[in-house]
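Tokens for chain A. Residues wanted.
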């Protein structure tokens, strides 16, 4: 049985494109990385008002989480929509997650898929995981394990640990992919290296994925793990 696709927590997602006002924006990022969200907010607000989509996305996330400003879902939606309409992937993902989970808005799978597809198309792994979860659960779409596995692999190849774990479980179960215990072991092992879980839980996951393999198969699977990791997830077949 596949571990449920991890719920995406709304968070401050910082985009990567060069901002129009690099100095002010970078100073805002520096403040937020130090945990000084109030200073970050003060720097971001004028940039957002001038139309900087990255600042708008971050401002929306701050209103959403209550970091740097009082939580205000209405203001969060206003800024996130402005940024999302300007093509900001972080804002698109946050909107998609809100509609998927029904956070501060009515749950709307059509809107969730729309915004997550836009963010996923820009390579945002978390949005790809959201889409995979919708296909796996049949949330607003016809349940399709093959499609779920496709989106999980895109995210897994970017190093997303939740995607790697779930993709590994799908290989073990033969859901959406041909059953393959070696690939199941490989993705599961890779996931445990970066998942936020205790050592005991990690060991349990590793032992579970290894117990059906012979010593010869296990050695082959471990070599696959090494090759996949050394290639930065590009040589994982």
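Reply:
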């Amino acid at each position: 049985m596949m571990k449920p696709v991890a719920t995406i927590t709304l968070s401050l997602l910082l985009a990567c494109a060069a901002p129009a006002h690099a100095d002010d924006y970078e100073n805002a990022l520096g403040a937020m990385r130090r945990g000084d969200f109030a200073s970050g907010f003060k720097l971001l607000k004028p940039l957002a008002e001038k139309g900087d989509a990255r600042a708008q996305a971050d401002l929306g996330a701050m209103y959403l989480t209550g970091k740097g400003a009082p939580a205000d879902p209405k203001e969060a939606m206003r800024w996130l929509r402005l940024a999302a309409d300007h093509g900001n992937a972080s804002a698109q993902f946050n909107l998609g997650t809100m509609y998927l989970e029904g956070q501060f808005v009515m749950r709307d799978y059509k809107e969730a898929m729309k915004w997550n597809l836009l963010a996923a198309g820009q390579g945002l792994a978390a949005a790809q995981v959201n889409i995979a979860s919708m296909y796996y659960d049949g949330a607003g779409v016809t349940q399709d394990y093959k499609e779920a596995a496709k989106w999980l692999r895109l995210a897994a190849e970017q190093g997303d640990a939740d995607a790697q774990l779930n993709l590994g479980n799908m290989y073990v179960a033969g859901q959406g992919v041909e059953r393959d215990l070696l690939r199941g072991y490989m993705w599961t092992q890779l996931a445990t290296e970066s998942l936020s879980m205790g050592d005991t839980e990690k060991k349990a996951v590793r032992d579970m994925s290894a117990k059906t393999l012979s010593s010869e198969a296990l050695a082959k699977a471990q070599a696959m793990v090494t090759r996949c990791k050394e290639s930065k997830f590009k040589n994982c077949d």
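Residues 190 and 229 are 8 Å apart (CA to CA). Residues 1-20 have pLDDT under 50 and may be disordered.
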